[in-house]
Amino acid sequence: MNRAIRDWWKSQTEFTQLVLASAVVGAVVTLAKGYLPIGMTLDEYEQALKYREIDVSKELKQVPDAKDHHGLEIELKVIQTKLQNSSKNYEEYLTRLKHRIARLEKLRGQVPDELLTKIIDTLKRGDSKKADHLLKQVEIQDDSVNKVASEGVYLRCMIAEDTIRYLEALEHCGNAARLAPDNTFYLYEAGIINYKLANFKKAIEYYELALASDLKTYGEDHPVVAGDRNNLGLVWDSLVSIKKLSITLYWP
């Protein structure tokens, strides 16, 4: 042991030495078991948002399609808003990440264990692009495991949404709903991402499908159905507001 370190160690109280030794042992055991801390640091989160802001700004100059251009503008505004309160949004990001990992864990035994572990470890490190690439391998499984494939697509949607890639999320959530048209989670999330991109008519379509499915499952008086109706009402209000604004702007 280096003399300076040895001298420093001897200068510590017995209690401090015990705490430090326990921490080291805990870290060694954690690494030995293959555990990884969930997510990135706050600084890494902020840096990722800034890189995403740069990428979206570049894409805006290159995309000729008006619809995609509008979607990128929405993404840019969301990124800039999140950067203004990065600490709060970072905590929310970690919470969502834990939920994604929990859903992945439920696929144990249905997806090759090595692949699933790679996906989870990659997500824990905050590498969403690599996680998406690995999840694509789950998506392309054959029809005999269509339920697993649809869950893989759905998780790709969630990860894209978490990292403010709404146009990618739009495609993935739509595919998940197509693969499992009776899954209200997928229908609802497809509605949410369309709503975020101001595709209000399409959002209404998905919300109505989710409502119809929940009515069959729970009946009219269930809180889930009440929530579905409330969400549907909010989208209708947004659509009506946009139409009123259009009339105001273009009235001759």
What would you say this structure looks like, in words?
The protein is an all-alpha fold and 252 residues long. The chain folds into two domains: 40-176, no CATH class; 199-252. Helices cover 81% and strands 0% of the residues. The protein contains twelve helices and no strands. The chain has helices at residues 3-11, 14-32, 42-62, 66-84, 86-105, 113-124, 128-139, 146-162, 166-179, 184-196, 200-218, 223-250. Helix 5 runs antiparallel to helix 8 and helix 11 (200-218) runs antiparallel to helix 12. The N and C termini lie far apart (85 Å).
Q: What is the compact description of this entry?
A:
This protein is mostly helical and 252 residues long.
Topology, element by element:
Layout lengths: L2 H9 L2 H19 L9 H21 L3 H19 L1 H20 L7 H12 L3 H12 L6 H17 L3 H14 L4 H13 L3 H19 L4 H28 L2
Which characteristics define this entry?
252 residues, mainly alpha, 81% helix, 0% strand, disordered C terminus
Number of strands: 0
What's the overall geometry? globular
Task: Report the helical percentage.
Answer: over 70%
Number of helices: 12
Structural class: mainly alpha
Q: Mean pLDDT, nearest integer? A: 82
Distance between the termini: 85 Å
